[in-house]
Amino acid sequence: HKLADYGDQRLRTNARVSGWTDVGPAGRGQPQAGRKEAPVGSGLIGQSWAMLFASGGFKVKLYDIEPQQVTNALEKIRKEMKFLEQSGSLKGSLSAEEQGSLISGCLTIQAAAEGAMHIQECVPENLELKKKIFAQLDQIIDDKVVLSSSTSCLLPSSLFAGLVHTKQCIVAHPVNPPYHVPLVELVPHPETAPATVDRTYALMRKIGQSPVRVMKEIDGFALNRLQYAVISEAWRLVE
Ligand SMILES: NC(=O)c1ccc[n+]([C@@H]2O[C@H](COP(=O)([O-])OP(=O)(O)OC[C@H]3O[C@@H](n4cnc5c(N)ncnc54)[C@H](O)[C@@H]3O)[C@@H](O)[C@H]2O)c1
């Protein structure tokens, strides 16, 4: 709670300084007029981000290199939302049907990026593949979009090396399953603009996640390092 409060205080200060007011004032779960978020890669993590963004009332454009994967993802998401609604665990204040109608699929990365305010890369953990995706997005986007990676451990300085829009790039590392575990660590590139961190922080809060700011990139980020220390200790206890 202390960390979250600290984050909110910084956010208010930075928002005042930069005049930034990008995530609208509507309550959580209300439709966010004109805002669109785009997960790139519709596997496990891409689907979870899509559901979380929709729970916050955001329009979502889901993209995958495999068109069938998008179709399957949309079907799975709608079924999952219905199930969560019936069991009383659906996030946000919109119904499963309303949230489902906010999510659609597309066949090209250009269509995903068009009009998006936040693009969340969710392709497999492969540096060259992710770099290729960010290089493509770098050529398409303007200077208002946040480019975010779901990477579990690739460093921002490797992922975003040589991009024109590095200031708009960040890692937002979720915890599996992201829909049920709210922690997200935000890891900046050394050149990431404070406004990019603030916008991502605010978006995460808006969709009900608990973002933590990691002040600089570090091998394994913070979560993996803490998690692996606990796992190693658990093994030692078993031994
Ligand atoms: N699964 C986890 O527990 C977990 C937790 C935190 C972070 N992550 C990270 O999230 C990212 C995604 O993981 P995942 O588990 O969802 O993987 P996944 O294999 O379930 O999904 C990846 C999707 O990306 C698609 N894809 C491949 N190449 C593509 C391209 N060029 N353009 C668009 N789409 C493409 C694939 O078709 C697939 O649908 C990874 O970086 C992973 O490290 C995963």
Automatic annotation (TrEMBL):
The record marks 173 as: Important for catalytic activity. InterPro entries: 3-OHacyl-CoA_DH, 3-OHacyl-CoA_DH_NAD-bd, NAD(P)-bd_dom_sf. It comes from the Eukaryota. Residues 40-217 form the 3-hydroxyacyl-CoA dehydrogenase NAD binding domain. Residues 17-40 are annotated as: Disordered. The keyword Repeat does not apply. GO terms for molecular function: L-gulonate 3-dehydrogenase activity; NAD+ binding. Keywords: NAD. GO terms for biological process: fatty acid metabolic process. SUPFAM superfamilies: NAD(P)-binding Rossmann-fold domains. Belongs to the 3-hydroxyacyl-CoA dehydrogenase family. This is Lambda-crystallin homolog. It comes from Leptonychotes weddellii (Weddell seal).
